[in-house]
Amino acid sequence: MERKKFLLTTAAAIPALLIGNTVKAEKKDRTDKGFVVKSTESRFGEKTLLGGKNANDIKVSQKDTNGERTIFEYTGKEKGGPPLHVHTHQDEIFFIVQGEYLFQVGEEKYNLKAGDTIFLPRKVPHAFAQLTEIGKMFFLFQPSGKMEDFFRVLGNLTSQPSPEQGAKIFADHDMKVVGPPLPF
After folding, report:
1. Helix or strand (DSSP H, E) at 181
2. 119 - beta bridge partners?
3. CB 31 within 8 A of CB 64
């Protein structure tokens, strides 16, 4: 009889616990106003240049979404991309605006051009390479995790990191490098 009472009491408490978590989440960082971020601008005026010339602007910040997502606009002025890596906590979505890109997701490879979208699930190794001299894309992380800080760290580098230094930067931001960059 005591077991049955325990199970019923526990089952009855679950909705209250779920509602409590929802209320807590809404009290954290989340904007309650719409906003516009103009082309070539970044949310909160923060500019990040990767490799000294590739703009990677925050369009929607984790501060706006209680950490649920971050959206970046990337304008690449050179060919290349990151090493094959894994995000343990984030899914990614890329929308190509200009140029051509090669993506690897798991063992599959995909060629994308303007107008194409690709979804990269968490815990699946992936990489991309910009194949054209100029490229532009929007990409988002869900949830945000440490990704805004990751790009700040990369933007502050004054030289190309060694593979070991790069792997440490990835690890410090909850990612793991598992292979080299894609050829381009």
Report:
1. strand 175-181
2. 93
3. yes
**What tokens appear for 5 in the block?**
């009472």
What angle, 0 to 180 degrees and rounded to 10, lies between the N-to-C axes of helices 147-156 and 163-172? 150
One-letter amino acid of 181: P
CA dihedral sign, ordered 83, 85, 87, 93: positive
The CATH number given to 43-181 is 2.60.120.10
DSSP 30: B
Residue carrying the six token digits 């593979």: 163
Residue 48, both tokens: 């990040």
The per-residue pLDDT for range 76-89, each reduced to its tens digit, is 999 999 999 999 99
State the pLDDT at residue 29: 78
